[in-house]
Amino acid sequence: RSIHEIDKIRKRLEAEKLELQSALEEAEATLEQEENKVLRCQMELTQVKTEIERRIAEKDEEFAMVRKNQAKALDSMQAALETEAKGKAEALRMKKKLEADAADLGLALEHAIAGNAETQNTIKKYQLQVRDAQIKVDEESAAKSIAADAKVNADRKAAAMQNALEEGRALLETSDRQRRSAEQELADTNETLAELGNVNQSISAAKRKLESEFNQLGGDLDEMTN
């Protein structure tokens, strides 16, 4: 009965070990998926940052061009003032031209300001995307940490079950040795009983022989007496 119970325990422990190994494999697969998600989010975050930096650089070039054009316009106005002495008509013509240029530049500046506002909105939009991506990265990192903890717990439980299985096997081996020893002792006892039975039969035969001889002697003695 003890051997049967130990065998049942061993089978149950082996089944639990297989279940734990399956859970461990599932945890490792989940961990790998979470790591891939984190890598994808990091790549997307890098791409977004690169796009923001490129657009900022483009706007910086546009602002530099506008400042350069304004500097040229101011130089032109200064030259017109220096040549005012050459003729009022020329000065008025240049003034009108410069006023038109100034209007164009003002319009260009307004466009640049509008473009800057749009760029700021785009930057804010990308900042929100970056923040959302960072939140996703943090969530994926947290999920990865949870999966890693689950893997560690599964490893510990599997090790404990393996130890229990080994102990069960050791108990089974001890029980087998005890059973074989008991069987040997039973065989020895049966052999001793058989030998004792033979001795008993020999003693009984000798006793019957002695009783027969005693009876015969008694009969001879009676005949001699009569």
Q: What do these coordinates show?
A:
With 226 residues, the chain is an all-alpha fold. 97% of the residues lie in helices and 0% in strands. The protein contains 2 helices and no strands. Helix 1 runs antiparallel to helix 2. The longest helix is centred in the last third of the chain and has 138 residues, at 88-225.
Keywords:
rod-shaped; 226 residues; 2 helices; single chain; mainly alpha
In short, what is this structure?
This protein has helices at residues 2-82, 88-225. It is mainly α.
The number of distinct β-strands equals 0
- The run of helices and strands is HH
Give unreliable regions as ranges.
none
Q: Overall 3D geometry?
A: rod-shaped
Global Rg: 55 Å
The end-to-end span amounts to 74 Å
Number of helices: 2
How do the helices and strands line up, and which of them pair or pack?
Elements: H1 2-82, H2 88-225
Helix pairs in contact: 1-2
